[in-house]
Design goal:
Radius of gyration: 18 Å
Structural class: mainly beta
Distance between the termini: 32 Å
Shape: globular
Largest sheet: 7 strands, antiparallel
Order of helices and strands: EEEEEEEEEEEHEEEEEEEEEEEH
Number of strands: 22
Number of helices: 2
């Protein structure tokens, strides 16, 4: 059984445009610092907040699937395939399947907050595919209640966001005060970001903005004295392909 809690202070850090956009990074690049390194399909995970309206200029990507989840406010997205700016509001999500290559830019309104998460879907395959892009509106994501937990599902279980990366389920859990339980798959790794509140997960305390990695467990027990919200990604513990991070680590080890 393993529950690892990484506080905001022990995550990576980044900034754009002189601090107009700041990021804490549960999984960052090597230069960002932070305890967690890439694992499973997950390569990069940033929580970005705009102090003022600001734009991250046009930049290229290849191979990875890059997802943005709007947690507050409004963002706009531009890429070289659509060749147009597209708005996304709180609760919306988008995915860029970067394939052979695509460039994009992002504009965040003042006070906007979003996750940007990079997933490794087997670059050996996706680098041969054309790039594609989809955005999804909040009202299109299914919401169900299970044992007192309201679960909004973004990907997996019939939700609309489709990915090339195998075996991933992405959801947001909201709940009231109390002791709650959720059955999970012990063959997967659960990566959890505490969006709101202070909780205990299987006895381990996690404050707002903590990142929690759970594995080898078939149940998550939540204890909370107030309302809470968790962003949860379940991914395969073992993949049937080498990830980019694994290949880079092997090269550095030689």
């Amino acid at each position: 059984m393993s529950v690892q809690v990484i506080s905001k202070e022990n995550q990576g850090y980044g900034a754009f445009n002189g601090g107009e956009i700041i990021e804490n990074k549960p999984i960052g690049f090597p230069q960002d610092g932070g305890e967690a390194k890439p694992y499973s399909n997950l390569f990069y995970w940033a929580y970005a907040e705009a102090k003022v309206e600001s734009t991250i200029g046009l930049h290229p990507h290849q191979g990875f699937e890059i997802m943005s989840f709007v947690l507050n406010g409004k963002i706009e997205h531009f890429d070289t395939q659509l060749n147009d700016w597209k708005p996304l509001n709180k609760g919306d999500a988008q995915i860029i399947r970067a394939g052979k290559g695509i460039s994009h830019a992002e504009k965040m309104g003042e006070g906007a907050v979003m996750f940007q998460i990079w997933v490794d879907p087997s670059l050996q395959k996706t680098m041969q595919q054309p790039a594609s892009y989809d955005d999804y509106r909040h009202e299109n994501f299914p919401i169900k209640t299970e044992n007192g937990i309201s679960i909004k599902t973004y990907s997996g279980d019939g939700a609309p966001l489709t990915m090339d990366a195998p075996g991933m389920n992405i959801s947001e859990w909201s709940f009231e005060k109390g002791n709650l339980e959720k059955t999970i798959d012990s063959q997967k790794i659960y990566s959890i970001y505490v969006l709101e509140g202070e909780v205990k997960l299987n006895g381990e305390k996690a404050r707002q903005d903590a990142f929690v990695i759970v594995q080898d467990i078939n149940e998550i027990k939540i204890e909370t004295e107030g309302e809470g919200k968790l962003f949860v990604i379940a991914s395969d513990k073992k993949l049937n392909y080498p990830t980019y991070a694994e290949m880079m680590q092997a090269r550095m080890g030689r």
